[in-house]
Design brief:
Elements lengths: L1 H15 L26 E2 L2 H10 L3 E4 L21 E3 L4 E2 L10 H15 L7 E4 L5 H13 L4 E4 L2 H7 L5 E3 L7
Parallel strand pairs: 1-6, 2-4, 2-5, 5-6
Antiparallel strand pairs: 3-7
């Protein structure tokens, strides 16, 4: 009986949790934390809606998960292999563009990557994602709006939601030129 009560509480907890408000600017820290339900100027997609767009080939998908850092304290000569990024098939992976503050080189990398992915069409639908409760995709989508993209979508459940629904994934390599 106690287990049933705990399970019910876990199901209902999101309904009682206060909503996370949109910040006035970019999220600058604690990038893995509850995200808002909205992003002004962008459409927010459910996993099913993102999958339908992907199946129809109607949008460009941009993965902004940062690259995994090399662990500190590895002994000299240790070979470290970056873990693979399993993501939405056909997506472009542009790591490190979702931080709140970007160096100019990262802005250029992001702008160039968006231009390549959209064929230079600022009106082409573009979907930004990362993981669930990841502010990186929220920041990246907001930044794309500021760059002048007109059909920006944010997929807050990211690859976590995608995998939960058992949709296909593939290993992505980062778009060259990032830092």
């Amino acid at each position: 009986m106690r287990g049933a009560v705990v399970a019910l509480a876990l199901i209902l907890w999101p309904l009682a949790a206060p909503a996370t408000p949109e910040p006035a600017g970019y999220r600058m820290d604690e990038y893995r934390a509850p995200v808002p339900d909205t992003l002004a100027g962008a459409r927010v997609l459910s996993t099913e809606a993102a999958h339908a767009l992907w199946e129809a080939g109607e949008a460009v998908f941009i993965d902004v998960l940062p690259r995994a850092p090399k662990p500190a304290g590895l002994p000299a000569g240790t070979v470290w292999r970056e873990p693979p990024r399993h993501s939405i098939p056909g997506a472009t992976w542009m790591p490190n563009v979702g931080y709140g503050a970007l160096a100019e080189v990262n802005h250029a990398y992001f702008r160039d990557g968006l231009a390549a992915a959209t064929g230079g069409n600022m009106d082409r639908p573009v979907v930004f994602f990362c993981l669930i409760d990841c502010w990186m995709s929220w920041n990246a989508a907001r930044r794309a709006l500021e760059y002048g993209h007109t059909d920006v979508m944010w997929f807050p459940d990211g690859t976590d939601g995608w995998v939960f629904y058992d949709y296909p994934t593939e290993v992505l390599k980062p778009r060259p030129g990032g830092r």
